Amino acid sequence: MKVKIEQLEPNPYRDMKNYPINEEKVKTLVDSIQQTGFWDNILARKQGSKYQIAYGHHRLAAIREVMKPTDEVDIPVKELTDALMLKIMANENMDDWKATPQVIDETVRVTKRFLEEHPEEVKKVTPMGATPGIIGGPTICRFLGWDEHRVRYSLERLKMIDDDKVEHSVFTQLPTERAARNFVDVVKKYDIPKERQKAVVERYKEKGGGEIGMRDAAMEEMFVPKTRVSNSDKNIKQLDAEFASVDAIAEDLRMAISRLSRLCDDIGAPQYWNGVNWTVRLKETLRKTNTDIEKFINQI
Questions:
Q1: pLDDT tens-digit series, residues 77-107
Q2: With helix as H, strand as E and coil as C, how does the chain read?
Q3: N or C: which end of the chain has fewer CB within 10 A?
Q4: 249 — alpha (psi -120 to 50), left (phi > 0) or beta?
Q5: Are 111 and 78 in contact (CB under 8 A)?
Q6: Pairing state of beta strands 43-47 and 50-55?
Q7: d(C-alpha 147, C-alpha 153), whole Å
Q8: In Å, what is the CA distance from 114 to each residue of 15, 188, 238?
Q9: pLDDT class of 250 with cuts at 50, 70, 90
């Protein structure tokens, strides 16, 4: 169907402020359109005298640069429900933005709001025999078809923002979903105040290094004195590295014990295994470790 460019509008569920257009991608599309012409990779629905696009926002931005508002483009126009418009937008975001924390969180936020306002859609994704309840992770997962962990972590980040524990802008600076998870972990572990969180992210982006890099960035921001000796000192560098290594080992131990506990809950655990009472042995090892830690702390 031929539609004038001035009649095209964004998806009503895409907040253009929080889902900003990637100018580099628009530039690439502009070059492509100038060389080969416009291809109808935009899907829309008619709303009054306008046409709301379900996906293709970067392509729309590109044709607005190279064509006049009164020029026409030939695009598919279909009858699309609000729910379908939202789902299509969510899938487009995952493809276009490689699942950045910013886009994941804004998609989850708008989906939660949509489901709260449309109980009929909640019923469609509620398991047979169950009563629709609070709009949480499982309901959003079923509606979007997303992984449960992705939504759960996103809801945690959104709650931290709503509770004024983290600024929204901090999460927009994190490049990946994994980095956002690691950031949340160190904020909770080290009780990092809002005014120092941006500095942690900046340190992390300078260093990189995944989970350990985020942990090191947090520790440096929170525990390294601002007037400390320069890191050019070899001994200071070595001490820093050893502290970070010991902290990582301690965190790995804590997580391993947590996994062991869950495994014992699932399958049960005999008191003895191959003739060894592992409960007593582990307890004694941890007691010795704790004694060494206390001696070290008293020493420094």
A1: 999 999 999 999 888 767 655 678 988 999 9
A2: CEEEHHHEECCCCCCCCCCCCCHHHHHHHHHHHHHHCCCCCCEEEEECCEEEEEECHHHHHHHHHHCCCCCEEECCECCCCHHHHHHHHHHHHHHHHCCCHHHHHHHHHHHHHHHHHCHHHHHHCCCCCCCCCCCCHHHHHHHHCCCHHHHHHHHHHHHHHHCCCCCHHHHHCCCCHHHHHHHHHHHHHHCCCHHHHHHHHHHHHHHCCHHHHHHHHHHHHHHCCCCCCCCCCHHHHHHHHHHHHHHHHHHHHHHHHHHHHHHHHHHCCCCCECCECHHHHHHHHHHHHHHHHHHHHHHC
A3: C
A4: alpha
A5: no
A6: antiparallel
A7: 10
A8: 13, 30, 53
A9: confident
Dig out the tokens for 157 from the structure: 């980040």
Cβ neighbours of 66 (radius 10 Å): 13
Scan for tokens 């502290």, then name that residue: 243
Residue 35 tokens, joined: 């060389």
Contact by Cβ (8 Å): 150, 104: yes
Can you read off the two tokens belonging to residue 146? 């997303």
What one-letter code names the amino acid at 25?
K
